Amino acid sequence: MVLGETSTRNAARYLAVPRVVPPLDPGFRPAVLARHALGAAIRESGGGQSVALAVQQPGGSVYARETLVFDDGHPDVGASYLFCERLLKSMLWSCGGSRIWVDGPPGLAPYLRRHYQVEPTGQFDARLLGGEVYRAPFEVVAARRPDFPSSADEITLLGRHLDGCRIGFDLGASDRKVAAVIDGEVVFSEETAWDPANHADPQWHYEQINASLQRAAAHLPRVDAIGGSAAGVYVDSEIRVASLFRSVPRELFDRHVRGLFGELRRDWNGIPFVVVNDGEVTALAGAMLTGVGGLLGVAMGSSEAAGYVTSSGGLTSRLNELAFAPIDYAPDAPVDEWSGDRGCGVQYLSQQGAGRLLAPAGIEVEPGISLPERLVLLQDLMAGGDARAARVYETIGTYLGYALLEYRESYEFGHLLLLGRVTTGAGGDVIANRAREAMQVEDPAAAASVTFHTVPEREKRHGQAMAAASLPAIQA
Fold first, then answer.
1. Pairing mode, strands 139-142 and 99-103
2. Superfamily of domain 164-278
3. What is the pTM of this model?
4. CB atoms inside a 10 Å sphere around CB 444
5. Which positions ≥6 away from 179 have C-beta within 8 Å?
6. Fold equal for 164-278 and 281-463
């Protein structure tokens, strides 16, 4: 089945208007509400079919969900297939996988195969997840029970090692941070501005990172272990996908970037050296600071970073790349510059989201001003009581509220840690309060079950450094 304009138009009838409307984005149509509206319509039709969907990583981790589609012959069956693809998009980028399992009507698996083989947004998902993240064939498999896999997460108790002399670092899109830690106490920390995405020479990246490590080491009697976090996807400390290195040509990336942290480890005498996604370290830091589990961390910075700590305090094998997961099904939703897809979290819960809302708010900026500079302008206006700035933060908070309702369908969490430059200052309180309001209006039980946490800036930076430094265990 090939979906045309008719199916897309038919899908629009299930795009529910949120009860709390973002002040600067009246066309916002939350993904979670759209799927619920479609499911209700299918049940009311007296027909429909149950569909099981699963995404599987090569290592065996599986995440499975069920949904509904209209029967073949129903005028909106194409729309329900389209919603299956949107749901899979969220599953792929929140949980990760290179194999999709489908237990549904005969036409669904072929439709999905065509999407990942032909459509540019599907090709992006297949190329990154299959070819670059998991380095395995990306495939869609039709299967029936009992051959259909069940959900199975791989949980590790990485981190929380505070003994010895350690270095922790964090590599972001606009700055890198490093800290020296002795038996759990931060004795030195430093933040350095950089622009890694515009540098094509892998040696430049190596030297910049190593220079920060050397400065931290100067404040320690010895270095027993190094732990780090960075934006991107990392498997066993190997760089699989990272926007930090987007200017590096593919051949140089494969030869000199993919194993960059392994090279650093060798140059640091083979000491324990562990690097994971920055969202994971954010969540781990939050769990260590607050003493709770079942925590989802969302950091609104240059992009949207996320991490998850289970109720038992462990980290999972999930990707947690929620920047690519759609939270808005509106057909004219903003486009992510990297994937080319619409409605993805990065355009709502990051500096990119804040930057694009300035014009609708009536805030003029000089041509060419960077996103970090736009955010500073917004924060200054908010500090001065500007009502236009307040509407920007109210809009972001509304996005967050509906995004959290979406994320609750993929994660079991009772605690939310809210971080990132977008949440700095008075605007952060507006975002949190508006998110709570949206959740309360749409789903009071969900709102009551989630506790919001924020961390003072100094504790956040030290906590992030501590969590990163605590990743590796020191060998006896």
1. parallel
2. ATPase, nucleotide binding domain (3.30.420.40)
3. 0.90
4. 10
5. 167, 168, 169, 186, 188, 189, 190, 216, 462, 465, 466, 468, 469
6. yes
CB 29 within 8 A of CB 334: no
- Alpha-carbon distance of 74 to 272, in angstroms, equals 58
Please provide the DSSP assignment of 16-41 as one string.
Answer: PPPSS--TT-TT--BHHHHHHHHHHH
Q: What is the pLDDT of residue 4?
A: 46
* Secondary structure letter of residue 385 according to DSSP: T
Compute the CA torsion angle 70, 72, 77, 82 (nearest 10 deg).
100
| Preceding omega of 472 cis (within 30 degrees of 0) | no
Q: Which two tokens stand for residue 73?
A: 């012959």
Q: End-to-end distance of the chain based on CA atoms, in angstroms?
A: 59
Q: Report helix, strand or coil for 463.
A: helix
Nearest Cα residue to 281 out of 423, 451, 461: 461
In whole angstroms, how far apart are CA 48 and each of 104, 191, 194? 11, 55, 53
Read off the pLDDT of residues 201-258 as tens digits, 9 standing for 90 and up.
999 999 999 999 999 999 999 999 999 998 888 888 899 988 899 899 989 999 999 9
Maximum distance among all Cα pairs of the chain, rounded to whole angstroms = 73
Q: What angle do CA 197, 315, 442 make, to 5 degrees?
A: 85
Burial 311-326 (b: 16+ CB within 10 A, else e): eebbbbbbbbbbbbbb
More confident residue, 302 or 112: 112
- Give residue limits of the domains in the chain: 5-142, 164-278, 281-463
Domain spanning 281-463: CATH superfamily: ATPase, nucleotide binding domain (3.30.420.40)
